[in-house]
Amino acid sequence: MSKIYVIHENDAWVEPLRAAFNELHLPFEEWFLSEGLLDLASVPPAGVFYNRMSASSHTRGHRYAAEYTAGVLAWLESHRRRIVNDSRALQLEVSKVAQYAALARYGIRTPRTFAAVGREHLIAAARQMSGPFITKHNRAGKGLGVHLFQTAVALEAHLDSPAFEDSIDGVTLIQEYIQAPEPYITRVEFVGGRFLYAVRVDTSLGFELCPADVCQVGDAFCPVGEEANAGAILPAAPRFRIIEDFRHPIVARYQKFIADHGIGIAGIEFIADRAGEIYTYDVNTNTNYNSDAEAAAGIYGMRAIAAYLGGELRRQRTDGEPSALVAA
Prior knowledge:
This protein is globular.
């Protein structure tokens, strides 16, 4: 019997999805792709495949999980299996450069960004910035490599210090710092290509904004607090809060973008500057949710994902053959 296959490398992040599958009595199987053996002459099972491979997989000791997943997805696609978040989505997940280039084609504004390899080129990029800027890893997740600088001289000192850590792919971004009037960003969630909800995320504690329960302070999977924030006072309001009746023209543009890039499930983050201009800076195809925020709003992302995948599985069984390679 066909089933739902979940491709991932982090058990903790899948736990709430397992609960949702069980609640809805949906057949599923997990493919944990930190390593493996793939026979290219074999035929994949029938079913619906949901790719949750993360750009930060290397930080959990799974250095080649994303590369191996790319091969598995190519194999699945060659057999026209139904994939939610296919190889195009994975390419965007592991490269901010690819994300920004793709977003620009849809008229979606991103912060001014340079991609550089090598110390001299990083400093040259910093010197072209007219104000504060941040560094970040091209293949990131978890706020990897994010530091705020006021001058190129400050960056030089950082590059020469033990604190500098190169991106796993060798590409570091120099990006203009968007000064928001209030310390928060907005994350827009989509399931099945449709808008689910938007969440306001307090950024006063720093740049690591993973919403999952396992990403809270003190957890080894995805620690929120950085050394720079040691001793910081926790915000009085919840760090994650779902926005009621969120409406913005950017939602329709995001929907078009994800539909054209093999993405069925994603969280896209933007920040607004003092003039109200919004800048999109991250596309998360391995999206997670905050249970406290969802309980307060009565909306549940993993349950929505499970229901969507269950619907795709029923549709495939009704059709009697593998679906075309579309994600939404």
